[in-house]
């Protein structure tokens, strides 16, 4: 998108064109790299979480929903890879907008479910008696509400995109879709809401949960009480914080500036070019959450490791027994 009535020098536009070509290659290689690990790890995680874990406490329901959110984005990656290789979208505008929408749905659903995991682990640690009376259907209801609210809140991301007029432009998708020019007040309101509810608020909640767990750990150390569950909860919240900051902080720091560039609020060539150049990098970092989230399940959930280990051992034993029976039959 270019800003009206603003003269942009030739070197700026030329450098951005070269950068956009390089970004097509970056998107292609990056999505190729994360597709297979993301698909395998999340499929395995969903299978283990749904089939082998009987306990529905310890944020298991939220982890299942987090895995579904990651899989929704991962399944759209082959279409993204096709577009960035061929620079052509033959699948129609509806599927384009759906894949575009799934990217942001995954991002903000992941953020909210990371918040839910942190809150639940903190609450169950500080109020263990309430955890005994907590029902899994409560988590299911919360998850449904999260999906509805996040789904509605992510709709502006596709509503802000214009549908191309020409047949040739209609073969464009993702970053090549033109953006609508919004009213200044509306643009500011959307920026403030996205940053407040999509980043600053969740960051504050996760940070506050970390503080409460650390404070509880210090008190229990003074009283010589058992701190095993406290340390596990602290590791869980810290990893959620780490994934949150690494994957989503760069995007949301740059998002405010990027929207100001697209709405012609920032018009300086050098500044706008730097913001535009960092935008795809921040999007790639946000996509890494689909590969990092399964680490939460494996390293921080004892039941996940136990069930995965037991199932893996049983499969191995079954294969060894079948091989032994086959060899004895041949003898």
UniProtKB/TrEMBL annotation:
Provenance organism: Culter alburnus (Topmouth culter)
Keywords: G-protein coupled receptor, Glycoprotein, Membrane, Receptor, Transducer, Transmembrane, Transmembrane helix
The keyword Membrane belongs to this UniProt entry's keyword annotation: yes
Cellular location(s): Membrane
Annotated GO biological process: phospholipase C-activating G protein-coupled receptor signaling pathway; positive regulation of Rho protein signal transduction
Alphabetical list of SUPFAM superfamilies matching this protein: Family A G protein-coupled receptor-like (SSF81321)
Protein name: G-protein coupled receptors family 1 profile domain-containing protein
Pfam families linked to this entry: 7tm_1
GO terms for cellular component: plasma membrane
Boundaries of every G-protein coupled receptors family 1 profile domain copy: 41-297
Transmembrane segments annotated in the record for this chain: 29-50, 62-85, 105-126, 138-159, 186-214, 235-260, 280-300
Keyword check for ATP-binding: no
Membrane topology, as annotated: Multi-pass membrane protein
MF terms in GO: G protein-coupled receptor activity
């Amino acid at each position: 998108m270019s800003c009206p009535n603003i003269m942009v020098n030739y070197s700026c536009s030329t450098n951005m064109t070269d950068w956009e070509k390089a970004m097509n290659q970056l998107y292609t290689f990056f999505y190729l790299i994360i597709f297979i690990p993301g698909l395998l790890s999340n499929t395995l995680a969903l299978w283990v979480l749904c089939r082998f874990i009987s306990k529905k406490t310890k944020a298991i329901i939220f982890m299942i929903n987090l895995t579904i959110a990651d899989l929704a984005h991962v399944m759209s990656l082959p279409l993204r890879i096709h577009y960035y290789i061929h620079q052509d979208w033959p699948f129609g505008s509806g599927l384009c907008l759906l894949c575009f929408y799934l990217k942001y749905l995954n991002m903000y659903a992941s953020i909210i479910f990371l918040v839910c995991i942190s809150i639940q682990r903190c609450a169950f640690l500080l109020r263990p008696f309430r955890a005994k009376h907590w029902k899994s259907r409560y988590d299911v209801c919360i998850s449904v509400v999260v999906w509805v609210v996040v789904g509605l809140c992510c709709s502006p991301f596709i509503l802000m995109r214009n549908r191309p007029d020409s047949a040739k432009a209609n073969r464009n998708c993702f970053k090549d879709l033109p953006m609508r020019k919004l009213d200044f007040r509306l643009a500011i309101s959307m920026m403030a809401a996205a940053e407040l509810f999509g980043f600053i608020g969740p960051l504050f909640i996760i940070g506050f949960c970390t503080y409460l767990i650390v404070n509880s750990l210090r008190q229990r150390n003074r009283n010589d009480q058992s701190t095993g569950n406290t340390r596990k909860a602290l590791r869980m919240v810290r990893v959620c914080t780490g994934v949150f900051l690494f994957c989503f902080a760069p995007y949301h720091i740059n998002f405010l500036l990027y929207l100001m560039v697209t709405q012609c609020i920032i018009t300086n060539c050098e500044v706008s070019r730097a913001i535009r150049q960092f935008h795809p990098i921040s999007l790639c970092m946000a996509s890494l959450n689909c590969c990092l989230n399964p680490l939460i399940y494996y390293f921080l959930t004892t039941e996940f490791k136990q069930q995965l280990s037991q199932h893996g051992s049983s499969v191995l034993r079954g294969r060894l027994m079948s091989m032994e029976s086959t060899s004895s039959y041949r003898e």
